[in-house]
Amino acid sequence: MAVPLIRRLPTQQQLFDLAPPPVRRVLVNLEAARREWFRRHGDYRALVARHDPAFYRRPLAEQEAYQLAELRRLLEGARRDVPHYRASLPPDPLATLADLRSLPTLEKGMLRRDPFAFVSERLPRRQLWARKTSGSTGTPLTFHLDREATRHQQAAADAMLAAYGCPFGERRARFSGAYVAPYARTTPPFWIWIDSYRQLQCSAYHLAPPFFDHYLQAIRAARVAYGTGYPSAWYLLACHVLERGGAPPGLRAIITDSEGVSLDQQAVIEHAFGCPVYQTYGTGEIGQVAWQCRERRYHVLTRIVVIELLDAAGNPVAPGEAGEVVATSLAGANTPFIRYRTGDLAIAATDPCPCGLQSPALLSIEGRLDDYIQTPDGRTVGRLSHVTKPGRGIRESQIAQVARDQVVIRVVPDADFDPASMAAVVAAAHRYLGAGMQVRWERVERLPRTRAGKLRHVVREL
Question: What b-and-e string marks burial along 303-337, b requiring 16 or more CB atoms within 10 Å of the CB?
Answer without folding.
Answer: bbbbbbbbeeeeeebebeebbbbbbbbbbbbbbbb
